[in-house]
Design goal:
alpha/beta; 9-stranded parallel beta sheet; 8-stranded mixed beta sheet; about 55% helix; elongated
C-alpha cells in the first residue's frame, strides 16, 4: 500500500510538472508576471540607492508565493473539478493524499527557479549582496509556498463553485497583500493597525524573508513564523484530504468554510501572543530602520567641518549603508554614477552630529503640573527625539533613574524609536546628605528608599564603593559620575570623603569605565584631578580655577565641561527672563504645553519665590566663562555639556546654545564645534565611529545653512539631520508611538 501511494504521488507530480510547463498562462504568471512587478517596484523605490532592493525582492517573492498558493493551487483545483478533470483521476488507483502532496511539491519546484532568478537580478543589476543564509532562505521560501498552497487547496475543498472560490480567496488575498508589509511597510501603520497585522499569515512570511535576506538571520531565528507556516501546511493538508471532492456535483455545507479558521489557527494564536509581546512589531520597525539607513546619499557642494579642526571649503560626502563611504575635496562624481540620491548643499555647511555629554532626562528643564512631563516611559523617548530634531545625535545621561535610563537606551539605541543615541552614566556617587540627595526629600517616604537606589550611591567605605562600581559595570552603564561639592551659604552639602572618592575612581578605571566628576569650586577640581578622573563637569562658577590646575588637566588628558547653559539658566530664572523659552528651535522641539506652563510659573507667586531663592545661590556666569577661556588657553581638551533638565535648560537644541555661549566667552567657533563633535566623542570613547566626517564612521551628520564658523548662530539654521545614514523626517519625530 505505501508503495502504491508513492508511485501515485510520483506519477501525479510528474503530470503536474508537465501540465505546468505546457501551460503558457502558468509560465507567464510564474515567471514573466513577477519580473514585471520586480522592475516596476525597483523603479518606484529607487532600488539602486541601497537596501530598498531587499524590500523589493521580498515584496515580489511574497506576492509570488500568494499567487502560486491562492491562484495556482486553489482556483486551479476548483477549475479542474468543474471541468471534470478530477473525475478522471477518481477511477485511477490514486487517492486524494498523493494528489494534494504532489500539488504542494510541484508548487515548490515551480517557484524556486523564479525566486532564484529574482535574487540574481537583485545582485547583478541592483548590487544587493548575495544572501549569506542560502539554506535558511530557500527553506523559508519553501515553507511559505507549502503553507499558502496548502491554504489554497483547503479553500478549494470547502467551496462549491469557482465563483465562491474567487470570493473567499479575495477576502484573504487583499488583506494579506496590503496589511502584512508586502506592499506598505508595517512601521508606517498606526499602532492599532500594526496589531491587526500580527494576525495576518503573510506578515510572518514577509518579516522572515526580510530578516534572512537583509539581516542575515537564520531559520532558527525565525522559528515562530516558520513554525506557524509548517503547522498551517500540516493542518491544511490533513483537512484538505478529509474534505477532498472529485466531482462538481458533490456539494458541502456552507458551514464547512469554518474549517478555514482551523487552518488559520496557528496565526490567530501567534497574533494573540504578538499583540502582547510586540516582538514582531518591533522587528518590523527595526527592519524598516535598517533599510532606511542603507540608502545611498551624496551631499554635494557643501562646506565640510570635519570635526577635528579641519575644514574643506567645498566638497561632498557620500553616505552608504549607514556609514560615510567617501569624503570628496572639490567636485564629486555624478550621483547617477554612484547610484546615490543627491542632496544639493551649496552655501551650506555639513558637520558631524552634535553631542551633549551632560543631560538629565528625568527632569523636563521647565515647570509643569503634567504628570507626563515626569513619566520616564514617555518623557525620556520624547526628549531624545527633541535632541535628534535639533541635530544632536548623541547624549550622555548623568544621574537619571537607573532602570528607566537603561530601558530608554535599549528603546532608542536599538532603532525601535528614533532619537539621539543614549549613553547611560549613573547613579551618582555622593555622600549621605550630599549633593544629589536633596531631591529625595520631595519623594514620599514610602518610595524614598527605592528612589535613592535608582539615582544615587552613598558608599560608607572604600570597599563598598568598589563593590557598587562593580555592580554598575555588571548592569551595563557607560560610565561613572561622582560628586565633590560642599555648596555654599544657604545650600550646604555633605562632601564625599576623598579616600572613598579615590576608591570609586580607581575601580572605575579598573573596569574600563570613564569617570567624570561634578565639582563646585577649584578645591573640588584639585581633589578630582588628584584622583585621576577623566572629566571635570561644571568646573566652578564661584571662583577662578588656578592655571596650574588647567595645566594638570592638559597633562593628564582630562576633559573640561563648563555647562555654561546651566549657569545661564539659573541667571535667567533669577532675572525672570523668558528669552530661553522663545528661541525658535526651542519652540519647534519642546512640548508646547511645557513652554506655556513654564512661562506661567515664572510669572506666578511661586515663581517669584524661586527667583529670590536662586539669587542667594551665588551663580556667576562671568566666572564660569573666564574659567572656560583659561582652560582653552591652557590647551585643555574641551567638551560640551548643557546640564539640560535644570531650570530653563529644556531638552532639544542645548548644544546650539552652549556653543553660542562659548563664542560669547571669546572662544573661536571652530574650537566650540570641535568640542561638540570630536572631543565629546573621545570622552564617550566612541571616536572610532562618531564625531568625525571620516570614511568608515557612522553617518551622523548635521547640515545647516550658511557658515557657522563665521556666524555661530547659523548652527540653528538646520536643513537636514542624518542618523546612521538615515535622513531624518524631523516633522514626524514627535508622532512616534
Amino acid at each position: 500500500m505505501p508503495g502504491q501511494m508513492a508511485k501515485g504521488f510520483l506519477a501525479q507530480a510528474e503530470i503536474n510538472l508537465k501540465l505546468t510547463y505546457r501551460d503558457k498562462t502558468v509560465i507567464f504568471f510564474n515567471y514573466m508576471f513577477p519580473l514585471i512587478f520586480f522592475f516596476i517596484f525597483a523603479q518606484m523605490f529607487h532600488a539602486e540607492q541601497g537596501g530598498a532592493i531587499v524590500q523589493v525582492l521580498t515584496m515580489v517573492l511574497s506576492i509570488g508565493i500568494l499567487g502560486i498558493g491562492f491562484f495556482g493551487a486553489g482556483i486551479r483545483a476548483v477549475q479542474d473539478r468543474e471541468a471534470n478533470i478530477l473525475r478522471r483521476f477518481k477511477v485511477a488507483p490514486i487517492s486524494a493524499a498523493p494528489m494534494l502532496v504532489a500539488s504542494l511539491l510541484t508548487g515548490i519546484l515551480n517557484f524556486l527557479p523564479s525566486a532564484l532568478l529574482m535574487i540574481l537580478l537583485s545582485h547583478y543589476i541592483y548590487g544587493m549582496p548575495f544572501p549569506q543564509r542560502w539554506i535558511s532562505l530557500l527553506l523559508f521560501i519553501s515553507l511559505g509556498v507549502l503553507a499558502f498552497r496548502g491554504l489554497g487547496l483547503m479553500i478549494a475543498s470547502v467551496v462549491n463553485s469557482a465563483q465562491e472560490s474567487q470570493i473567499v480567496i479575495q477576502m484573504l488575498y487583499f488583506p494579506m497583500l496590503f496589511l502584512s508589509g508586502m506592499t506598505i511597510p508595517i512601521s508606517v501603520f498606526p499602532n492599532w493597525l500594526q496589531l491587526v497585522a500580527q494576525f495576518i499569515p503573510s506578515t510572518y512570511l514577509v518579516n522572515g524573508m526580510q530578516a534572512i535576506v537583509g539581516n542575515n538571520e537564520t531559520l532558527a531565528q525565525n522559528t515562530s513564523g516558520a513554525g506557524a507556516l509548517l503547522l498551517t501546511t500540516v493542518l491544511a493538508t490533513f483537512l484538505g484530504v478529509k474534505l477532498f471532492r472529485w466531482e462538481k456535483e458533490e456539494k458541502v455545507a456552507n458551514s464547512a468554510k469554518l474549517w478555514l479558521l482551523a487552518v488559520l489557527a496557528p496565526f490567530l494564536l501567534l497574533g494573540m501572543y504578538q499583540a502582547h509581546s510586540r516582538d514582531s512589531i518591533v522587528k518590523s520597525k527595526l527592519l524598516a530602520r535598517q533599510f532606511q539607513q542603507s540608502r545611498t546619499v551624496l551631499i554635494r557642494g557643501a562646506r565640510i567641518f570635519v570635526g577635528d579642526g579641519r575644514v574643506i571649503e567645498s566638497g561632498a560626502v557620500l553616505v552608504k549603508n549607514g556609514k560615510i563611504e567617501h569624503v570628496y575635496a572639490g567636485e564629486a562624481p555624478d550621483p547617477k554614477l554612484l547610484h546615490a540620491e543627491a542632496v544639493e548643499a551649496a552655501g551650506k555647511t555639513v558637520l558631524p552630529g552634535l553631542i551633549d555629554v551632560h543631560v538629565h532626562l528625568s527632569s523636563p528643564g521647565g515647570f509643569s503640573q503634567s504628570a507626563d512631563a515626569y513619566a520616564a516611559n514617555k518623557a525620556m523617548p520624547r526628549a531624545l527625539a527633541e535632541y535628534l530634531y535639533s541635530g544632536i545625535t548623541a547624549v550622555k545621561s548623568v544621574g537619571d533613574p537607573l532602570d528607566d535610563i537603561l530601558k530608554a537606551r535599549t528603546l532608542v539605541n536599538s532603532g525601535e524609536r528614533l532619537g539621539a543615541e543614549l549613553f547611560a552614566v549613573g547613579p551618582m556617587f555622593t555622600a549621605k546628605g550630599g549633593h544629589g540627595t536633596e531631591y529625595l526629600r520631595f519623594i514620599p517616604e514610602a518610595y524614598r528608599k527605592a528612589a535613592e537606589e535608582q539615582i544615587v550611591r552613598t558608599p560608607s567605605t572604600a570597599e563598598e564603593a568598589r563593590q557598587q562600581v562593580d555592580a554598575l559595570k555588571q548592569v551595563g552603564v557607560d560610565g561613572i559620575k561622582a560628586i565633590l561639592e560642599t555648596g555654599q551659604s544657604g545650600y550646604i552639602f555633605e562632601r564625599m570623603d576623598t579616600a572613598i572618592f579615590r576608591a570609586v575612581a580607581s575601580e572605575a578605571h579598573a573596569k574600563a569605565l570613564p569617570i567624570v566628576v561634578h565639582t563646585g569650586d577649584s578645591h573640588d577640581v584639585a581633589d578630582a584631578l588628584n584622583a585621576g578622573v577623566d572629566g571635570i563637569e561644571h568646573g566652578s562658577s564661584r571662583d577662578e580655577i588656578p592655571v596650574a590646575l588647567f595645566q594638570q588637566m592638559k597633562t593628564s588628558g582630562v576633559t573640561y565641561d563648563p555647562t555654561l547653559s546651566a549657569w545661564e539658566g539659573f541667571t535667567n530664572v533669577a532675572s525672570g527672563s523668558l528669552e530661553p523659552l522663545e528661541r525658535p528651535l526651542v519652540l519647534q522641539a519642546a512640548p508646547p504645553g511645557l513652554i506655556e506652563s513654564s512661562k506661567k510659573f515664572l510669572q506666578s507667586a511661586d515663581g517669584m519665590r524661586m527667583r529670590e531663592s536662586i539669587k542667594k545661590y551665588g551663580v556667576d556666569l562671568g566666572i564660569a566663562k573666564r574659567n572656560l577661556m583659561a582652560a582653552w588657553q591652557a590647551g585643555v581638551t574641551l567638551v560640551t555639556g548643557s546640564d539640560a533638565g535644570n531650570p530653563l535648560v529644556l531638552h532639544g537644541p542645548t548644544i546650539e546654545r552652549e556653543v553660542e555661549l562659548w563664542v560669547e566667552a571669546g572662544l573661536p567657533p571652530e574650537v566650540a564645534l570641535q568640542a561638540a563633535t570630536y572631543n565629546a566623542a573621545r570622552l564617550l570613547r566612541v571616536s572610532d565611529r562618531m564625531g568625525l566626517i571620516k570614511e568608515g564612521h557612522e553617518a551622523n551628520l548635521l547640515l545647516v545653512d550658511g557658515n557657522p564658523l563665521k556666524d555661530i548662530k547659523q548652527i540653528e539654521s538646520i536643513q537636514s539631520v542624518f542618523l546612521k545614514g538615515e535622513r531624518i523626517s524631523r516633522s514626524e519625530l514627535f508622532d512616534q508611538e
